[in-house]
Write a structure and sequence with these properties.
- The complex is a heterodimer.
- Helix content of chain A is about 50%, strand content about 15%.
- Chain A has 13 helices and 10 strands.
- In chain A, the strands form 2 sheets. A 7-stranded antiparallel beta sheet of chain A has the order 4-3-2-1-7-6-5. Chain A has a 3-stranded mixed beta sheet with strand order 8-10-9.
- In chain A, strand 2 (about 20-25) and strand 3 (about 30) form a beta hairpin.
- By secondary structure, chain B is an alpha+beta fold.
- Chain B starts with about 25 loop residues before the first helix and ends in a 7-residue tail after the last helix.
- Chain B has a 10-stranded antiparallel β-barrel with strand order 1-2-3-4-5-6-7-8-9-10, surrounded by 5 helices.
- In chain B, about 40% of the residues are buried.
- In chain B, strand 4 and strand 5 form a beta hairpin.
- The chains are: A alpha+beta, B alpha+beta.
- Chains A and B meet through strand 4, helix 2, helix 7 and helix 8 of A and helix 2, helix 3, strand 3, helix 10 and helix 11 of B.
Chain lengths: ~375, ~350
């Protein structure tokens, strides 16, 4: 084992590097040069600033005054240091601790993964539920109004009052089954071709003409309205916003630097994470929607029949794409609904047996933006 | 070897404890070399000395540091974040090497934490108050508009202030061969430069921007010191402006690639016009190599959802050290220590605003 090492001395006053020799003693480092001048640096005056990882040269800084420095490239020097003077050098890095540092890092990694998993699968949903209950309904209604102005501009709404009333009656029949319903439900029909419907926080359900005209019976529409009403009643939009913020915080905490170079990865991670929550909410809206139908005395099979129409339209996607979608795959939804329907009572009534649904669902064609029409 | 020859140790092991301000001022004055003396010697057919930077760290080591940082940050409910930042930064600094010596960063988490707290108090709260109070009191539109304007002005003043104070702090905690960096520029000067620059840029519909950029760099670089040696910047806005305009005009046709070309040109321009100790920096960055760096990092981060950022960071620093070097006969042994203090507040606010200015 070597007893002395080559190194360089920096006097902290200029950038000149002076070659020296170093030898670890019991309480201090002995440093000397070619001219025979030698000094001792007590270990307690030393601070280590380099040499913590393989390949890094060792650099000691002497505290006080001019911050003199000592540079030794050979890390075996550190090992020898700890062998010669184990106690007084305990504040200096010991290469022998590197394997346990690696082990600690690995365990810390496991702990982080565990923590993230717990938060993602349990913590954030629970927080979402708790925090949502603290948000006043009036906030949702206010938000809903603003959203309505943007997404359902009055000029695009179909306004046939008598037909709209019938559609709204369906919703009221459904929501009548709910105790303590704090919302005022309304249905808005938009004159767009797309086949879609969505719930807006605060009680508004927007149905697009394309979807409306696809429904063959009022019970099929009831299935869709029940699903959307459940989104509102379970305050999914508020939940999603809270979950989004918490997921964002979690991702930022893991990635460490929430800005700049990382913003891209962060957005991607957050979006992917959110998809799972979206699917959970959709599944909940399906299940509770069907239960609502049954409570209102409507045949749940009609809801399933309507979803079957969607199945035929949807691209047959499996696995990866299913993960990427915000909705569970149509077939999955139908399967869950069917098994749910099996357990439900069989009696049901027909809504509006004396009305021609094909006439009612043309609420957009007959309205011509405000011109009232009577039912034929 | 050149230099003052053998300088004896402080033979009395401790000696009288001098305050850090104790540097002979004559030594400092002599070494503040004027720009005209800065041309690198390339006469008599002697090839100029080229000193390259090297970067030694591996992504996996940084990743390990990062994991432990995240673990401790979570455990401390976020408090460890500031110490984590210091750990990462000092790791990166001490893996950058020039002339066989590595850089050091010896700031502390506590300093950055305190800076952050100060920033919240002095900037964050007033700004939030200005923005929120009119909303909460539901005052009329004019007042709200005025509040926004005031908020904007506050930001326009605080950004340059932060840039200067963050730089001052960061440099005061950085060293090479035991000699500290320092930044001597004044906040008020930079605020003025900044406001004037934005004003002119707006009036000129953006045409002034390259000039503004060059003026900023000139200020930041020419007030930077390593010990007693000053950095100098000799570039002019008029040298950069044509490339800027060209890149801007060709942006749609080249699908953005003209911008990468401009960034590479800017990199070469800014480094190539920076002088230190009778030597000049040089950048060999090309549009294509810069594109590979950025595209590679983007892909890396997207595919790993940001988890691979230690590798992305290492790639950036390796890119820097591969392409930037110091050319010339400059005497790196003759630098003398200079004293000054740095305040951490700018650091904390820079955290917040992430203006990202950094030397190197």
């Amino acid at each position: 084992m070597k007893s002395s090492w080559e190194g360089h001395y920096l006097d902290g006053r200029s950038s000149v590097k002076q070659p020296v020799f170093v030898q670890p003693l019991a309480d201090a480092l002995k440093v000397w040069n070619d001219n025979g001048i030698s000094v001792q640096w007590p270990y307690h005056e030393l601070k280590q600033t380099q040499g913590f990882y393989t390949g890094e040269p060792v650099y000691f800084e002497r505290e006080g005054g001019y911050h003199e420095g000592l540079l030794v490239s050979d890390s075996m020097f550190l090992t020898a240091l700890h062998q010669v003077a184990a106690v007084s050098t305990s504040h200096l890095h010991n290469p022998a601790s590197r394997p346990s540092r690696a082990k600690f890092t690995f365990l810390a990694g496991l702990a982080v993964v565990g923590f993230v998993g717990i938060q993602y699968f349990w913590g954030i949903p629970v927080f979402g539920a708790l925090a949502t209950s603290l948000v006043p309904i009036t906030w949702e209604e206010r938000l809903g109004q603003e959203v309505m102005e943007h997404f359902a501009p009055p000029t695009d709404r179909c306004t046939d009052p008598s037909r709209l009333k019938i559609i709204t009656d369906i919703v009221l029949k459904l929501t009548g089954t709910v105790e303590n319903n704090p919302y005022t439900f309304r249905v808005i029909v938009l004159d767009y071709q797309a086949v879609n419907a969505f719930a807006i926080p605060g009680g508004n359900i927007v149905v697009l003409r394309g979807l409306l005209e696809m429904t063959r019976t009022p019970e099929e529409l009831a299935g869709v309205l029940a699903h959307e009403a459940q989104h509102i009643l379970n305050r999914h939009s508020t939940r999603i916003m809270l979950e989004q913020v918490s997921t964002g915080i979690l991702v930022a905490a893991i990635l460490g630097d929430p800005t700049g170079i990382m913003a891209i990865g962060l957005e991607g991670a957050r979006t992917l994470g959110m998809l799972r929550y979206s699917r959970k909410h959709e599944a909940e809206a399906d299940t509770k929607g069907m239960q609502m139908l049954v409570a209102a005395g409507i045949n749940p099979q009609e809801m399933i029949a309507f979803y079957q129409l969607f199945l035929n339209k949807e691209r047959d996607s499996t696995g990866f794409w299913a993960y990427l979608s915000t909705h569970p795959r149509a077939q999955e939804r139908i399967d869950s609904l069917e098994s749910l329907a099996e357990g439900m009572p069989n009696k049901s009534v027909k809504l509006f047996p004396y009305l021609d649904w094909t006439s009612i669902r043309t609420v957009c064609h007959s309205s011509a933006r405000g011109r009232a029409d009577t039912l034929s | 070897m050149c230099g003052p020859g053998w300088v004896p140790f402080s033979m009395h092991d401790r000696g009288p404890l001098h305050a850090r301000k104790d540097v002979p001022s004559e030594a400092v004055a002599q070494l503040d070399i004027a720009p005209s003396d800065q041309e690198p010697e390339q006469s008599q057919g002697r090839p100029a000395t080229i000193r390259r930077f090297s970067f030694h760290a591996h992504g996996r080591t940084l990743f390990g540091i990062h994991i432990v940082n995240v673990f401790l940050t979570l455990l401390s409910c976020g408090l460890y974040y500031f110490w984590a930042k210091v750990k990462t930064r000092s790791f990166l600094y001490r893996n950058i090497e020039l002339e066989q010596d590595r850089f050091t960063f010896d700031g502390t988490g506590k300093e950055i934490f305190l800076g952050f707290m100060k920033a919240i108090l002095i900037f964050g709260l007033p700004y939030a108050a200005i923005q929120l109070v009119p909303e909460l009191l539901d005052t009329d539109e004019v007042l709200k508009w005025l509040a926004s304007l005031l908020g904007l002005f506050l930001i326009l003043v605080l950004i340059p202030r932060t840039v200067v104070t963050a730089r001052r702090y960061r440099m005061s905690r950085s060293a090479w061969r035991g000699i500290r960096f320092s930044f001597q520029g004044k906040v008020s000067d930079f605020i003025y430069l900044y406001l004037r620059g934005w004003g002119l840029t707006l009036i000129s519909l953006g045409a002034y921007y390259p000039f503004f950029l060059v003026k900023q760099q000139a200020f930041l670089i020419s007030h930077s010191y390593l010990g007693s040696h000053r950095f100098h910047f000799a570039g002019r806005g008029s040298d950069l402006a044509p490339s800027f305009v060209l890149a801007y005009l060709l942006f749609p046709i080249t699908l953005g690639f003209s911008w990468i070309w401009y960034l590479a040109k800017k990199h070469r321009f800014l480094w190539g016009n920076t002088y230190f100790a009778n030597a000049r920096f040089q950048s060999t960055v090309t549009a294509w190599s810069l594109f590979r760096l950025k595209a590679g990092n983007l892909l890396l981060l997207l595919l790993t959802l940001g988890l691979a950022w230690p590798w992305a960071t290492v790639r950036i620093l390796r890119f820097f050290s591969d392409h930037v070097s110091l050319v010339g006969q400059g005497d790196l042994d003759g630098i003398v220590q200079r004293l000054g203090t740095g305040d951490a507040m700018g650091e904390g606010l820079d955290e917040w605003l992430e203006t990202g200015f950094d030397f190197g």
